[in-house]
Amino acid sequence: MTTEILIMNDRGAVMAADSAATVDNKVFTADKIFRLSDRHPVGVMVYGLSEIGGVAVDILVHAYRRRLGDGGFGTLGEYADDFMRFLESRGASGSGPPVITDESVDRFTIEYVLSVLDDLS
Questions:
Q1: Buried-most residue among 45, 58, 63, 71 (CB within 10 A)?
Q2: 3-class DSSP state for residue 24?
Q3: pLDDT digit string, tens, across residues 104-117
Q4: How far apart are CA 33 and CA 60, in angstroms?
Q5: 3-state DSSP call for residue 105?
Q6: What is the pTM (predicted TM-score) of this model?
Q7: What is the DSSP secondary-structure string of 25-88?
């Protein structure tokens, strides 16, 4: 189970999360907090998923940060909307192929269906 905490006041915010992750009853260390911007203090916390469309979350966040570059937004809502558009575009940056490929989605879908079937048996 993931524990995440966000403490905010009018001067700033602090994000914290545990680092334990469990796969097949084995515990290992995982990052759960990521910077969305190299220039502005904006972050994202994740829990319950380590991949989106078969691509690791840290790779997607890094690709988004690279695409964002020195750009930025005035509100957290604008960052969230732009990040969601980035994910909906499969991580396409306009200057290169998308991060989430058809092959990674197919592989992720097959693995997910197999895990659900395994849980049913």
A1: 63
A2: coil
A3: 777 777 777 887 78
A4: 13
A5: helix
A6: 0.72
A7: TEEEE---EEES-SSS--EEE--S-SEETTEEHHHHHHHHHHHHTT---SSHHHHHHHHHHHHH
